[in-house]
Specification:
alpha+beta; 5-stranded mixed β-sheet; 35% strand
Length: 242
């Protein structure tokens, strides 16, 4: 079954590493006019898929820093960025087995700059959640989530009402449907996070949760697909638009 969540390790950051004032709890308007629902690395801004590019570079950084450990799975961090664009705190929300603890947190010393973000003309202290997948065994490269009609990187409140009645599916590299064993839905807005678990066809609790999601936040789906005896993850994030 999917790995369970661990306790929180909170580490204050006193170094002057400059990163994005990025929000998973707000929208990011990139120079290309593209709405991105999560922070992206500066080097990935002009890539066709900046989120996928950023995730790949982060995975490479973590894999390189932890190359003496054979480890697979997804670490989940919560980052807080101050109003000057500096990394203020790092919370490790989900560790691996065996635990990596502060060693995983310290990898952020090596992470390059992120894209700056200004919300409604104002730079604000921001908190966002960042998943980092290590190894190839728990993340299906080239697979993607299919949930109703593809609406791109942003979905509206009205879209959510329709999507609540649609099954969450996974498409493999050839476009074939792979039914997920479980779906984890996470909504984030202004530092608040809510999570619901459901089968592919959303249960009543998940539908009720979607009804509570408000514009200005983000919605992340993690679909778990069983391959042999292992569960692997496919992740997608949307901005929630008015």
């Amino acid at each position: 079954m999917p790995m369970s969540w661990s306790g929180t390790i909170r580490c204050p950051v006193v170094r002057s590493i400059w990163v994005c004032v990025g929000l998973c709890s707000s929208l990011m308007l990139m120079p290309l006019g593209r709405i991105i629902a999560q922070p992206v690395l500066l080097s990935c801004v002009r890539q066709a898929d900046p989120i996928a590019c950023s995730r790949h570079e982060l995975q490479e950084a973590f894999q390189s820093a932890l190359d003496d450990i054979t480890v697979e799975g997804t670490l989940v961090f919560r980052l807080t960025i101050d109003t000057l664009g500096r990394l203020k705190t790092v919370d490790l929300l989900r560790d691996l087995d065996p635990p990596l603890g502060e060693r995983a947190v310290s990898v952020f010393d090596q992470i390059p700059d992120w894209t700056p973000l200004v919300e409604q003309g104002q730079v604000q202290e921001a908190t966002f959640v960042l998943p980092v997948t290590l190894g190839s065994g728990h993340h299906l490269s080239g697979y993607r989530i299919s949930w109703g009609r593809d609406r791109g990187e942003g979905i509206t409140r009205a879209d959510l009402d329709q999507l609540a009645m649609e099954p969450v599916l996974v498409l493999d590299t050839e476009g074939r449907t792979v039914p997920p064993s479980e779906v984890v839905i996470t909504w984030q807005r202004r530092g608040k996070t809510k999570t619901w678990r459901s089968p592919s066809r959303l249960n009543a609790q998940a539908r009720k949760g979607l009804n509570r999601c408000r514009a200005g936040g983000t919605l992340t789906l993690v679909a778990y697909v069983q391959q042999g005896t292992r569960f692997q993850e496919v992740i997608r994030t949307w901005a929630i638009l008015p």
